[in-house]
Amino acid sequence: MLANLFLHYAFDMWLVREFPTVEFERYADDGVVHCVTERQALQVLAGLKERMAEVGLALHPAKTKVVYCRDGKRCRDYATTEFTFLGFTFRSRTAQNRDGELFMRFLPAISKDALKKISGQVRSWRLHTRIGSTFAQLSRLINPIVVGWMRYYGAFQRSALYPLLGRINAYLVRWIQEKYRRLRAVKKSQRAFKGATLAYPTMFGHWRWVPTVWRTR
């Protein structure tokens, strides 16, 4: 809280005063400043370095950089064309307009580091070994966490989460194989899994996005 209060005056209010036309976002000690031209970006960066020195701070040498937001209309070559902020990586991505035509936009999606972190958490659950639990108990265990990821990271480019949610399905299929001997064959376990998604489509929160068995592969 004290750091936020300090940066409110040292960073936020200084930017508003010195560069009133520049928009920015800040969360704790991480921020993004939006500039119209490279010249303006370099000017703001130089000013920020001086400002931080005045208040006894310094910009992070590796994280602080000027980024060119490349898309279908901004096509220049530049050394840095993406950045990560609050678990999202912003970069040029394929988008689709109302007519179904593809074009390039500068958009966010879950970052590789964030995806790696939550993938590790999914592995740590070892769902396929919890054969003493019921399907309903497994859903109560993971739903609050998985739905939280979906709400946060799925706000942009939700398809980037599909492989992760598909892996959760894969663990659930393995759980079926381990719990029920008669369903250990791949086709039988996948058929049982598909039947569960049809009979109880809201049991697992992620089934709203990735319900089908083919996602498990």
What does this structure look like?
- This protein starts with a helix and ends in an 18-residue tail after the last helix.
- With 217 residues, the protein is α+β, with helices and mostly antiparallel strands.
- The chain has helices at 2-18, 38-54, 112-125, 135-153, 162-179, 186-199, and strands at residues 23-27, 30-34, 83-85, 88-96, 102-110.
- Helix 5 crosses helix 6 (186-199).
- The strands form 2 sheets. The chain has a 3-stranded antiparallel beta sheet with strand order 3-4-5.
- Determine the structural class based on helices, strands and strand pairing: alpha+beta
Shape: elongated
Widest sheet: strand order? 3-4-5
Biggest β-sheet description: 3 strands, antiparallel
Low-confidence stretches: none
In whole angstroms, the N-to-C terminal distance is 45 Å
